[in-house]
Design goal:
By secondary structure, this protein is mainly β. It has one helix and 15 strands; from the N terminus they run βαββββββββββββββ. The longest helix is centred in the first third of the chain and has 4 residues.
Length: 201
C-alpha cells in the first residue's frame, strides 16, 4: 500500500535576479547591477489520491524567456493535468509514492526527467498496440539517482516499485504535434500518423 504522505523534505527554490542600476552608474560600461537572491520553500501538492506529490518550480510561456524584473516569479496556470504549458516550459518536482503504478499516457511535449532520489521505473510499450485492448507487457527501465530520462512524445507510465519515495525533477517543454512515419505506405510522399494526447485507464 502506497504511503499518502511524502517522506521527502519540501524543496527550496532560489531565485536570483538583477536589481535596477542607479542612473549615475548607467553610463559606465563596466558597471554591474547588484543581484537579489530569494530563498523560498515550495508547496507540496498531493495529486492522484496522494500517489504523486508535485512541487511547482517555474513556468515560462515562451522561449526565449525574459529576465526582466526582480522579486518572486509567478507561476502560470497550466491546463489539463498540469503537465504541459502550451508553447512554453513547465518545471516541477514530482514525488512518486512507494509501491505505486503509474498510468500509461502521452502528452504533446518533450520531457526531461532527472531522478533526484531513489529509483524510478519507466514503463513503455514494446510493440504497436490498440489502445482499446491494452499495451501488453511493457518494457521496464529502472532509472537511478542522477540519471536523466528524455521522453519525446511517447506513451509511458512512471512507477515506483520500491519501498521508498522517489523524487524526480521534470522540465516539460511544449512540442510540435507528435507523429510517426507510416512504414510500407504506397504513397510516393512520406506518410505520418498523428499521435494525440492520451491517458489509458
Amino acid at each position: 500500500m502506497a504511503s499518502k504522505t511524502t517522506s521527502l523534505q519540501a524543496p527550496r527554490r532560489i531565485v536570483a535576479s538583477n536589481l535596477p542600476i542607479a542612473a549615475s552608474d548607467a553610463a559606465n560600461a563596466k558597471a554591474e547591477p547588484a543581484v537579489e537572491v530569494l530563498d523560498e520553500t515550495l508547496d507540496l501538492e498531493p495529486i492522484l489520491d496522494g500517489s504523486l506529490v508535485r512541487a511547482r518550480v517555474a513556468t515560462q510561456e515562451a522561449v526565449p524567456t525574459s529576465n526582466d524584473g526582480s522579486g518572486s516569479i509567478a507561476l502560470h496556470d497550466v491546463p489539463g493535468f498540469g503537465i504541459v504549458l502550451p508553447g512554453g516550459i513547465n518545471m516541477y518536482y514530482l514525488d512518486v509514492a512507494p509501491n505505486s503504478e503509474g498510468v500509461m499516457h502521452r502528452t504533446t511535449s518533450t520531457d526531461y526527467l532527472i531522478v533526484i532520489h531513489g529509483t524510478l521505473t519507466l514503463l513503455t510499450p514494446q510493440c504497436s498496440f490498440d489502445s482499446t485492448t491494452g499495451y501488453g507487457e511493457p518494457k521496464v527501465t529502472h532509472c537511478n539517482t542522477g540519471e536523466v530520462v528524455v521522453q519525446r512524445g511517447i506513451m509511458h507510465a512512471l512507477s515506483n516499485r520500491t519501498d521508498k519515495w522517489v523524487r524526480v525533477l521534470g522540465v516539460v517543454v511544449a512540442s510540435g504535434p507528435n507523429q510517426v512515419p507510416i512504414e510500407g505506405s504506397q504513397s510516393p510522399a512520406p506518410q505520418h500518423k498523428a499521435l494525440d494526447d492520451a491517458w489509458l485507464a
